Amino acid sequence: MAVGVFDLFSVGIGPSSSHTVGPMRAAAVFAGELKDAGVLGSVAALRVDLYGSLAATGRGHGTMTATLLGLEGYHPELILPDEVEERLAAIAETGKLNLAGGVLLDYAVEDMILHPLTVLPRHTNGMKFAVSDAEGNVLCEATFFSVGGGFIVREGEENAAQRELEETKA
């Protein structure tokens, strides 16, 4: 995992890369995986859980809105300011989220489940995503951590990320 100057200075919506850029990236990764797996056509419901610091300060730091944009497939370094305002207004007005740009779901900021007093074992900035079909069967789920500077780590891959970092230092 080589880290360059553009990785250190994250480009994206703010005010905090840990609370906006990271969650937006995690949500965009999850949305992309749904698209790649070909399950979008079967998705009937979405669940987003925010834990610890993301849940406690998420409203003021833009965590929830950044997550919504990521779920629509937008990446923090590519979305334009006009697109941010346009998409957030459309979601607020219609109550519809365009998941991965492929399926409209009834979903808004208020649907996110906040756990401000629960910290996941690996990091205080945790988030879980899950989608299910019309029968309630979970199609795909993932847990991510926003570890600072806009960087994200998927649950279960923490040790691999640490090994990669150590290898780049050697």
Task: Give a verbal description of the structure.
This protein has about 170 residues and is α+β, with helices and mostly antiparallel strands. Helices cover about 40% and strands about 25% of the residues. The chain has helices at about 5-10, 15-35, 50-60, 65-70, 80-95, 160-170; strands at about 45-50, 95-100, 105, 115, 125-130, 140-150, 150-155. Strands 4-1-5-6-7 form a 5-stranded mixed sheet. A two-stranded antiparallel sheet has the order 2-3. A hairpin with a 3-residue loop joins β2 (about 95-100) and β3 (about 105). Mean pLDDT is about 85; it is low at about 5-10.
| Rg on CA atoms, Å | 16 Å
- Quaternary structure: single chain
Would you count the extended β strands for me?
Answer: 7
**Order of adjacent strands in the largest pleated sheet:** 4-1-5-6-7
Summarize the structure.
This protein has 170 residues and is α+β, with helices and mostly antiparallel strands.
